[in-house]
């Protein structure tokens, strides 16, 4: 099977490498950066460089671009895609790309399934990619309601073969609502936390808590700006809920309401325990 990976950054490069290492498929790579294309071929991350002329011969296309670029590429390239082929995107928000993908798939007779690999590191780009990036990670798939079950089953088997430990099925709406809390809010909090001038004095005064809180502040601001704005309603609601909770803690601390503060901390500890038990 010919599989094209469009975008050879951290996620696309890792998918290409994992597919080369773990499957027998022929992997073609497409990237706007010529040096990335050449390096991917040189390092045997791909079998061949992919051009638009190759798209009609590709049985599967994995779209590993930032949201706006993915949407534009799909709109510009849909007519070239092979009839009956499968397209899976890797964007961190799903409603907009899936709306575009589902409509174009029906028009041009290919299959589209939304995807979101729940894996990443603080670095980006092809040089940071790894065939082991997805080990023990979750892959979220957001198929259309009337998705061809054979295509969905193939997608599940394919991503499991790359090292993913589980496949989570969702809808675009549910995905965006939950991801606003589990991923996007954490990045907002981490970025905001770094704005304290005290951060420059952390050496010798910090340990695991500081590292955990600041790790994802090393984000790609271009991509995360797109993700935040595409999911603004759900993310803003989560920020509002957090601000209300922080206000409760602040009032208990400044007003020295010891019992209230103890209750707040106890509630958080017990919720963490319950959630860990469900995982």
Would you kindly provide a written description of the structure presented here, covering whatever features stand out?
The protein has 279 residues and is of the alpha/beta class. The chain is built from ten helices and eight strands. It folds into two domains: 2-170, Rossmann fold (3-Layer(aba) Sandwich), CATH 3.40.50; 175-278, 6-phosphogluconate dehydrogenase C-terminal fold (Orthogonal Bundle), CATH 1.10.3660. Helix 2 links the parallel strand 2 and strand 3. Helix 9 (232-254) packs antiparallel against helix 10. The longest helix has 23 residues, at 232-254.
Helix residue percentage: 40-55%
The CATH topology of the largest domain is Rossmann fold
The helix/strand class is alpha/beta
What summary fits the major beta sheet?
A: 8 strands, mixed
State the name of the first-level CATH class of the largest domain.
Answer: Alpha Beta
Strand order of the largest sheet: 3-2-1-4-5-6-7-8
Order of helices and strands: EHEHEEHEHEEHEHHHHH
Count of the separate structural domains:
2
Report the average pLDDT across residues: 96
Strand content: 5-15%
Radius of gyration: 21 Å
The tally of strands reads 8
Shape, principal axes of CA atoms: elongated
Q: Which residue ranges are poorly predicted, with pLDDT under 50 across at least 5 consecutive positions?
A: none
CATH homologous superfamily (4th level) name of the largest domain: NAD(P)-binding Rossmann-like Domain
Cα-to-Cα separation, first versus last residue: 36 Å
Number of helices: 10
